[in-house]
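REQUEST FORM: STRUCTURE PREDICTION
Request ID: SP-0412
Submitted by: Lab K.M.
Chain count: 1
Length (residues): 113
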Amino acid sequence: MKSYRTKETEIGGQRLQKGEVVVPWLGSANRDEKKFENASRFNIHRSPNHHIAFGHGIHFCLGAPLARLEANIAMTELIKRYSSITLSQGFTVDPIEDSAVYGLRSFPVIVRG
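STATUS: Completed
RESULT:
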């Protein structure tokens, strides 16, 4: 998603000229040091956690409760079924290189149940 400035403006001390391209980055917004303590550190217990992964206000995702329920069920079942899950030896992070999709190309694990 990108938009073009229709008039000159200033955001966060940065001057934007008319016609310049503006690209919002959700991943960057959710790592804002002004909003979150240790913003780049994964913390499942962060509270409050006012992230914008599901949007905000009138643009809030209608499917957010379902996505949260599905994640809860999937993680609960995974933990119940397997006593040990570890990363494969030599695991390296191989991110999907796309500004619209966040994730890894693969996530190889060793499962012992």
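NOTES: The mean pLDDT is 84.
Reviewed by: T.R.
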